[in-house]
Specification:
The protein is an alpha/beta fold. It has helices at about 15-20, 40-50, 65-75, 90-100, 170-180, 200-210, and strands at about 5, 25-30, 55-60, 80-85, 100-110, 125-130, 160-165, 185, 190-195, 195. It is globular, with a radius of gyration of 16 Å.
């Protein structure tokens, strides 16, 4: 079965083109000002126009308020919302309000962290397992950190899911084989600098996933 790809934190037309050419099924736009990958409303709208209809657009948020969600859904014409540091009840409310597909992010360091996924049953459509960042970190992800993929082996996932955190062209095959992931999410692993997507790295990542 083919492994799907989400290229996250895209902010240039060139990166979108590379992701599409590589066969990515999803492209992520980050709406979080502290992130070097943050895009504004006008920028998101222009980038969204470049994404073909068969590729889904995902808005990435950190515990957003209603005004931000509504503005960005409209500007980026989003298909899904990926929420970090957002309680399941709040995620369910946003899902109901926007009618968008909802992805709940679960930060993982230890086996017991996975139990948070169960609380998203009925509140989200998909779970994103990401590496837990250090206490006090400004960003909830996109820092190139990874967790032990073996933690996911045999875990009874409550919802469809994808794997994120420290992936790149060199390790994604190992990650897929170890965790059993059928969808992967990459951001810093296809960059030449924080927030700067590298089209060659995007191509290499997509090629590596296609060979899984």
């Amino acid at each position: 079965m083919r492994v799907s790809i989400k290229i996250c934190g895209v902010s240039t037309p060139e990166a979108i083109d590379a992701a599409v050419a590589g066969g990515a099924s999803h492209i992520g736009f980050v709406f979080f000002p502290p992130s070097p990958r943050h895009v504004g409303f006008e920028q998101a709208a222009a980038l969204a126009d470049r994404v073909p209809s068969h590729v889904r657009k995902v808005g990435v948020f950190v515990d957003p308020d209603d005004a931000l969600v509504e503005s960005t859904v409209s500007a980026g014409r989003l298909d899904a919302l990926q929420l970090h540091k957002t309680a399941p009840a709040r995620a369910a409310a946003i899902r109901s309000r926007t009618k968008c597909e909802l992805w709940g992010a679960v930060a993982v360091k230890r086996r017991e962290d996975l139990d948070a996924a169960q609380r998203f049953r009925g509140a989200a459509d998909r779970i994103l397992y990401d590496a837990k960042t250090p206490e006090g970190a400004k960003l909830p992800g996109g820092m190139g950190m990874r967790f032990d993929w073996k933690l996911l082996d045999g875990f009874p996932h409550p919802l469809p899911w994808l794997l994120s955190g420290g992936l790149d062209a060199a390790n994604v095959a190992d990650a897929v084989g170890t965790a059993g992931a059928r969808m992967v999410d990459v951001s810093s692993g296809v960059e030449s600098a924080p927030g700067v997507k590298d089209v060659d790295k995007i191509a290499a990542f997509c090629k590596a996933v296609a060979q899984c």
